[in-house]
């Protein structure tokens, strides 16, 4: 399952040879947002760039929830009556729509067992993951990459200490 939130916080990763930022250029950011259901307007691009580092910091526990107030404070829903029943429409200013949607997704991932979105446990990884496991115990964004490296390091450390 791909979410705007997860894609957004994973859209800028710094590698040894430099950063890879999927929102760096306006054309790339517009296409990126359109792929995720937004219109890709200049306001949405600016909003995505503004909310991304704040969401990442909140998820890592480096910033308080108050950091997200500029998006939460403008969230409104309006009811509309149709032949099919009551429909709720989001009524959020254009310059806060992307962030509000990402914050709403973040809020849906919080629960009594803890947050379902977290940073990858690998010390050298900057990715985030959404844990859909029953026990909420997933550690790595990718078992094939980070999980295998962690297991290989543990195995090497054990074999070295035994030898």
Describe, in plain words, how this protein is organized in 3D.
This protein is α+β, with helices and mostly antiparallel strands and 163 residues long. It folds into two domains: 1-109, no CATH class; 114-162, no CATH class. It has six helices and six strands; from the N terminus they run αββαααββαββα. The strands form three sheets. Strands 1-2 form a two-stranded antiparallel sheet. It has a two-stranded antiparallel sheet with strand order 3-4. Helix 3 runs parallel beside helix 5. The radius of gyration is 19 Å and the shape is globular. The model has no long low-confidence stretch (mean pLDDT 89).
Provide a short characterization of the protein structure:
This protein is an alpha+beta fold and 163 residues long. The chain has six helices and six strands. The model has no long low-confidence stretch (mean pLDDT 89).
């Amino acid at each position: 399952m791909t979410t705007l939130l997860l894609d957004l916080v994973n859209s800028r990763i710094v590698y040894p040879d430099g950063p890879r930022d999927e929102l760096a250029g306006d054309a790339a950011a517009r296409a990126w947002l359109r792929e995720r259901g937004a219109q890709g307007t200049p306001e949405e691009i600016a909003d995505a760039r503004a909310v991304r580092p704040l969401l990442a910091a909140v998820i890592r526990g480096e910033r308080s929830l108050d950091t997200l107030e500029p998006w939460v404070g403008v969230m409104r829903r309006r009811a509309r009556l149709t032949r099919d029943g009551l429909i709720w429409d989001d009524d959020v200013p254009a310059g806060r729509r992307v962030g509000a949607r990402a914050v709403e997704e973040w809020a849906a991932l919080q629960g009594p067992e803890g947050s379902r979105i977290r940073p990858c446990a690998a010390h050298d990884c900057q990715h985030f993951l959404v844990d859909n496991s029953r026990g909420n115990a997933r550690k790595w964004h990718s078992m094939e990459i980070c999980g295998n490296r962690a297991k290989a390091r543990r195995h090497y450390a054990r074999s070295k200490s035994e030898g």
